[in-house]
């Protein structure tokens, strides 16, 4: 099989849409300027391996999306083990014509489908996609007129003349259940991602930055990034101030107040709500710094480094809401052209070993009760960061209700709500999904898609 591709200069640079027939040998692709297309694969993002080799499918960490062509199949690859990129595809893998995209809005636009105007629970549906983990049957989202779309998440999906099937996860040389081995593993993955991003073979080398706050996780991530020579960081002010930490780490720090997220242009706010709900909107105030970059982030540290085990097994099944902030940045990420590497999630398929390290005697001096995170605490303290400067409760980076729904765009959304028959209707129980239960703001995804309806039109 082969690609026939057309660059769409007005599209977000990381977006792609593929259409193919099983009776032909050509995959037709429309894509933004940042998507790399080769003879047998296309991709956007970074991974912990040599860029020139292009072997993102076998990587320990891949944060992006892509396609790999085999002789008789098309393999759709989301972010591997991460929740920041999916691939949307026909529900029925037996159909002769298949369509796939790394943007739900793009897939809907190009296929002529639409969100179900009577269904307000897409937020909960997406939480469920990630909480069920790596599965053997595609999870789906309902669409208008009874249609559905398949969601490829966390592991690849192969489509051939015989139908579709989940691809096995890559074999990984994991860490031993001790702190030194785990620390070296994380740092090694970060180093290989850095080499991938900045290598001379990339058409456009990416800058590498880190986030910094007064919490546990971003401090640990910034310590490891600094050891790798990363010198630039961003920090969000408001209810916390990490500038002193930045000085101690020798980072060139760009700081902005979180209140600026309330003044973002509507077109940027639409991006943050296109995959609900815009909890990570403060990142959008750093468009200039994030453009064409890789961002090492502490996001996800709470679900891997905390005293509570979230993942039930190596298929990443999780009983609770987690890491939706990663997927909520999808449309913003594709336009600006950055890769978000949630360092705390690296190695999460061996959450059993991480928990063994967390609760081990060697970590006892860094344990601080149920809310503590011994691993990032130790990384920071051993790097010379005074314990009292980090590990604090922080609220600047992510926005929670009701503030998440504040801003200049709110009048437009309230106007849109008048077209919704019952904005509080829901098919789920409060006990199962308490976040935003029966809230009218679950409809922000419909509103954002309506406002962005021309983004992927030809």
Quick recap of the structure?
With 458 residues, this protein is an alpha/beta fold.
Please tell me about this protein's structure.
With 458 residues, this protein is α/β, with parallel strands linked by helices. It has helices spanning 104-111, 122-131, 179-198, 217-227, 243-249, 266-273, 287-290, 301-304, 324-327, 330-336, 351-358, 374-382, 410-417, 444-451, and strands at 2-7, 16-21, 26-31, 36-37, 41-47, 62-69, 73-77, 87-90, 97-101, 140-142, 148-152, 157-160, 163-166, 207-211, 232-237, 252-257, 293-297, 338-342. It folds into 2 domains: 2-166, Glutamine Phosphoribosylpyrophosphate, subunit 1, domain 1; 179-403, HUPs (Rossmann fold, 3-Layer(aba) Sandwich). A 7-stranded mixed β-sheet has the order 1-3-2-9-8-11-10, with helices on one face. It has a 6-stranded antiparallel β-sheet with strand order 4-5-6-7-12-13. The protein has a 5-stranded parallel β-sheet with strand order 16-15-14-17-18. Helix 4 links the parallel strand 14 and strand 15 (232-237). The chain is built from 14 helices and 18 strands.
List keywords for this structure.
458 residues, alpha/beta, Glutamine Phosphoribosylpyrophosphate, subunit 1, domain 1, Rossmann fold, seven-stranded mixed beta sheet, 14 helices
Give the overall shape, derived from the CA principal axes.
globular
Strand order of the largest sheet: 1-3-2-9-8-11-10
Tell me the helix content: 25-40%
> Within the CATH hierarchy, at the fold level, what is the topology of the largest domain?
Rossmann fold
Structural class: alpha/beta
Reported for the largest beta sheet, the result is: 7 strands, mixed
Mean pLDDT: 92
Percentage beta strand = 15-25%
The number of strands is 18
End-to-end Cα distance: 25 Å
Q: CATH superfamily membership of the largest domain, which one? A: HUPs
Work out the radius of gyration: 21 Å
CATH architecture of the largest domain: 3-Layer(aba) Sandwich
User: Poorly predicted ranges (pLDDT <50, ≥5 residues)?
Assistant: none
Number of helices: 14
CATH class category label of the largest domain: Alpha Beta
Integer count of domains: 2
């Amino acid at each position: 099989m082969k690609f026939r591709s057309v660059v769409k200069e007005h599209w977000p640079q990381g977006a792609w849409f593929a259409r193919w027939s099983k009776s032909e040998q050509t995959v037709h692709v429309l894509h933004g300027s940042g998507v790399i297309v080769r003879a047998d694969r296309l991709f956007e993002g970074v991974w912990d391996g040599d860029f020139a080799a292009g072997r993102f499918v076998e990587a320990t960490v891949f944060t992006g999306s892509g396609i790999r062509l085999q002789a008789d199949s098309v393999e759709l690859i989301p972010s591997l083990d991460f929740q920041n990129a999916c691939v949307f595809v026909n529900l029925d893998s037996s159909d002769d014509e298949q369509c796939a995209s790394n943007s739900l809005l793009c897939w809907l636009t190009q296929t002529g489908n639409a969100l179900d105007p009577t269904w307000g629970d897409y937020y909960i549906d997406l939480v469920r996609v990630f909480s069920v983990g790596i599965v053997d049957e595609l999870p789906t989202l309902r669409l208008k007129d009874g249609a559905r779309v398949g969601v490829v998440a966390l592991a690849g999906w192969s489509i051939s003349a015989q139908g579709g099937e989940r691809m096995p996860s890559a074999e990984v040389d994991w860490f031993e259940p001790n702190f030194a081995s785990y620390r070296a593993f994380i740092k090694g993955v970060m180093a290989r991602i850095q080499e991938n991003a900045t290598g001379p073979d990339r058409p456009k080398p990416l800058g590498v930055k880190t986030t910094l706050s007064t919490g546990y996780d971003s401090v640990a991530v910034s310590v490891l990034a600094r050891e790798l020579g990363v010198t630039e960081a961003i920090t969000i002010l408001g209810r916390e101030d990490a500038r002193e930490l930045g000085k101690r780490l020798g980072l060139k720090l760009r700081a902005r107040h979180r209140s600026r997220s309330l003044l973002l242009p509507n077109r940027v706010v639409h991006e943050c709500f296109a995959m609900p709900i815009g909890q990570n909107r403060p990142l959008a105030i750093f468009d200039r710094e994030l453009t064409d970059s890789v961002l090492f982030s502490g996001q996800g540290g709470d679900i891997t480094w905390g005293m509570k085990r979230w993942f039930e097994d190596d298929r990443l099944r999780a009983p609770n809401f987690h890491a939706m902030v990663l997927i909520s940045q999808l449309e913003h990420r594709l336009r600006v052209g950055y890769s978000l590497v949630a360092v705390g999630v690296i190695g999460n398929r061996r959450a059993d070993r991480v928990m063994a390290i967390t609760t081990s005697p060697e970590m006892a001096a860094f344990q601080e009760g149920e809310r503590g995170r011994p691993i990032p605490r130790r990384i920071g303290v051993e790097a010379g960061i005074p314990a009292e400067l980090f590990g604090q409760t922080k609220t600047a980076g992510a926005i929670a209700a009701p503030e998440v729904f504040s801003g200049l765009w709110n009048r437009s959304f309230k106007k849109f709500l008048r077209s919704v028959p019952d904005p509080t209707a829901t098919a789920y129980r409060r006990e199962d999904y308490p976040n935003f239960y029966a809230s009218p703001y679950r409809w922000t995804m419909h509103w954002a898609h309506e406002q962005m309806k021309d983004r992927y039109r030809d």
